[in-house]
Write a structure and sequence with these properties.
two-stranded antiparallel sheet; mainly alpha; binds zinc ion; 2 strands; elongated; Tkp4 protein
């Protein structure tokens, strides 16, 4: 039997024809959004989908009419299929894929107000004795993504590497920060300043530094331990920020 490929021929904006094979596994988003908190993960999957089929990246365009009607139809369907029922209902009356995206984005922005985001950064405090390196890494990646995707598109130019790196630095205990700065200077000298430091590389540098510190102290197996003041696993009780706050209050 001869296999017949089933596709729609879609006209994209630049009058280019692209074939959309709607039975392929890539014809849908590979991430299902069940909770608006995970919006940023879903956006990545939406982007992969649009790149794959050479559609417009609807996360960066403002004019809903930039998409041809076929493109709009396909992207809309893909979005709908990737949402749970509550979220699907919330965008039911949107006619354009771009508007669907914007409506979900504003739901996400409502969740993460700037005050709430500040609090999330402030409550992330890491020292050399962090017992949960993977959790720490995920936390920073999450914070960066939340910051990035919950902000107005017109604000995006502020999001440089150094913007995020200095945000991360405010979460580090001074000893850890010093150690990282020292290692970084060494690396910069070795590579003659050619390292392009992204926030993700910086987070890796934090984990490497914590691991090296364990190694120096002959600690090979470290169990995840919570700080007794604030329940965080990213620092020891000795260095806890909230403990410092308690001491200050007592001394007043
Ligand atoms: Zn603590």
């Amino acid at each position: 039997m001869k296999m017949v490929a089933i596709f729609y021929e879609v006209l994209t904006k630049n009058n280019q024809k692209t074939k959309f094979f709607y039975k392929y596994s890539t014809a849908k988003l590979d991430y299902k959004l069940d909770n608006i908190n995970e919006f940023y993960k879903w956006v990545k999957s939406l982007r992969e989908f649009t790149y794959h089929w050479k559609f417009h990246d609807i996360t960066t365009i403002l004019d809903p009419l930039a998409l041809t009607s076929e493109e709009n139809y396909i992207v809309k369907n893909a979005i709908k299929k990737s949402l749970n029922n509550t979220l699907k209902n919330s965008i039911e009356y949107e006619f354009y894929a771009v508007d669907m995206y914007n409506s979900l984005k504003s739901e996400f922005m409502d969740k993460y107000s700037s005050g709430y985001k500040k609090k999330l950064w402030r409550n992330t405090y890491v020292d050399l004795y962090c017992t949960d390196i993977i959790g720490m890494k995920n936390r920073f990646i999450k914070l960066i993504n939340i910051e990035y995707y919950s902000t107005d598109t017109s604000m995006l130019p502020i999001f440089t590497n150094s913007y995020f790196i200095s945000k991360i630095q405010t979460c580090l205990h001074p000893f850890l920060l010093n150690e990282i700065t020292r290692v970084l200077l060494e690396q910069l000298t070795e590579t003659r300043g050619t390292i392009k430091l992204t926030p993700f590389k910086y987070v890796k540098l934090i984990s490497d530094t914590i691991r090296d510190n364990r190694y120096m102290q002959n600690l090979f197996e470290v169990e995840i331990r919570k700080c007794s003041h604030c329940d965080s696993t990213f620092h020891s009780t000795k260095n806890c920020n909230s403990r410092a706050a308690i001491n200050l209050r007592q001394n007043e």
